[in-house]
């Protein structure tokens, strides 16, 4: 099938105005159904093949490459550049097969043999994504296409709604699609939502396009701690971490506004400007007796409430729970 995909793409490259499905399967010697499967395979590799449904200018029953000039690109890489790219690809190849394919094409196969010696970069935990999802999402963002999204939330509920995709945001170890939910907008709520990419069960591009949004991704990420939004506007959060855990706090930048103050006893004061959220509370409680909230008082009370709940859940016997 791999060689057939290449033949399929090459045939369309040779005919930039497009071909009918009949012409394609006749020239390739395959069935009509195989042509549509080859189209799906090509698009999973990032080669977008338009039909009449995608572009009314394409005749019904025809297929045409969307951007034939962008399909064939060749580069030569040094060994050092190749190793750097291999490390990057290892981090993202679960998202899209394009990364591995692009790496092989860029290096013209010169460094692929080195993989037999074992990887220099390994990612044991990675989300799984439906085939072609990443490619459809990036195209929808680039073209500002309204999408029909089927999504499974954290409660296990599966819902389908219209969504304007704005940007993908990486929050280890997940990718989130940020955009506007039409249902929330109609209900008068804040339409901006985060969808964890691996929980999107299906995403279909519609013909409808949305106008360029007044959306500042840097401001958006700065207004929250980790994945979820909080309650109210950002506030000054100050937490003292013991000397035993100070090194863990110093070495990781968890928010753009983060500041770390050194204390004479070896402890540190961690400061950020974020809304109070459950993610923030979970982060602090996770350090147990090594973290003490200095301000604000409201955050300290929420941390205490969670800590009491943890103690209670571990002191009540199973027979009385």
Description:
- This protein is α+β, with helices and mostly antiparallel strands.
- The chain has 4 domains: 2-70, Winged helix-like DNA-binding domain superfamily/Winged helix DNA-binding domain (Arc Repressor Mutant, subunit A, Orthogonal Bundle), CATH 1.10.10; 79-117, no CATH class; 133-219, SH3 type barrels (Roll); 225-315, no CATH class.
- It is built from 11 helices and 12 strands.
- It has helices spanning 2-14, 21-28, 32-44, 79-92, 98-107, 133-143, 182-186, 217-222, 243-250, 278-285, 297-315, and strands at residues 19-20, 49-50, 62-65, 145-152, 158-171, 174-181, 192-196, 200-209, 231-241, 259-262, 268-276, 291-295.
- The longest helix is centred in the last third of the chain and has 19 residues, at 297-315.
- The model is unreliable at 108-116 (pLDDT under 50).
Would you summarize the structure shown here?
The chain has 321 residues and is α+β, with helices and mostly antiparallel strands.
Layout of secondary structure:
Elements: H1 2-14, E1 19-20, H2 21-28, H3 32-44, E2 49-50, E3 62-65, H4 79-92, H5 98-107, H6 133-143, E4 145-152, E5 158-171, E6 174-181, H7 182-186, E7 192-196, E8 200-209, H8 217-222, E9 231-241, H9 243-250, E10 259-262, E11 268-276, H10 278-285, E12 291-295, H11 297-315
Antiparallel strand pairs: 1-3, 2-3, 4-5, 4-8, 5-6, 6-7, 9-11, 9-12, 10-11
Helix pairs in contact: 1-3, 4-5, 10-11
């Amino acid at each position: 099938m791999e060689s057939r995909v290449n033949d399929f793409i090459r045939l369309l490259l040779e005919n930039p105005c497009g071909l009918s499905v009949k012409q394609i399967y006749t020239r390739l010697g395959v069935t009509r159904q195989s042509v549509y499967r080859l189209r799906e395979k090509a698009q999973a590799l990032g080669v977008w093949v338009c039909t009449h449904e995608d572009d009314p200018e394409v005749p019904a029953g025809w297929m045409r490459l969307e951007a034939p000039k962008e399909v064939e690109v060749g580069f030569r890489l040094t060994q050092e550049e190749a190793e750097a790219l291999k490390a990057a690809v290892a981090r993202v190849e679960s998202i899209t097969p394009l990364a591995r394919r692009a790496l092989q094409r860029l290096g013209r196969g010169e460094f692929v043999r080195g993989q037999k010696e074992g990887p220099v970069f390994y990612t044991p935990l990675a989300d799984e994504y439906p085939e072609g999802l990443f490619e459809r999402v990036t195209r929808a963002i680039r073209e500002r296409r309204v999408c029909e999204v089927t999504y499974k939330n954290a409660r296990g509920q599966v819902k389908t709604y219209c969504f304007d995709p704005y940007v993908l945001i990486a929050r280890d170890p997940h990718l989130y699609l940020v955009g506007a939910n039409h249902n929330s907008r109609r209900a008068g709520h804040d339409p901006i939502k985060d969808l964890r990419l691996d929980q999107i069960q299906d995403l279909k591009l519609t013909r409808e396009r949305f106008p360029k949004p007044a959306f500042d991704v840097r401001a958006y990420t700065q207004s929250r701690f980790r994945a979820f939004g909080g309650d109210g506007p950002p506030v000054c959060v100050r937490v003292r971490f013991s000397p035993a855990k100070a090194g863990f706090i110093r070495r990781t930048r968890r928010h753009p506004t983060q500041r770390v103050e050194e204390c004479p006893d070896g402890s540190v004061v961690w400061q950020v400007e974020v809304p109070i959220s459950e993610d923030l509370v979970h982060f602090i409680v996770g350090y147990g007796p090594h973290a003490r909230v200095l301000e604000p008082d409201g955050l300290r009370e929420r941390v205490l409430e969670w800590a009491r709940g943890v103690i209670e859940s571990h002191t009540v016997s199973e027979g009385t729970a």
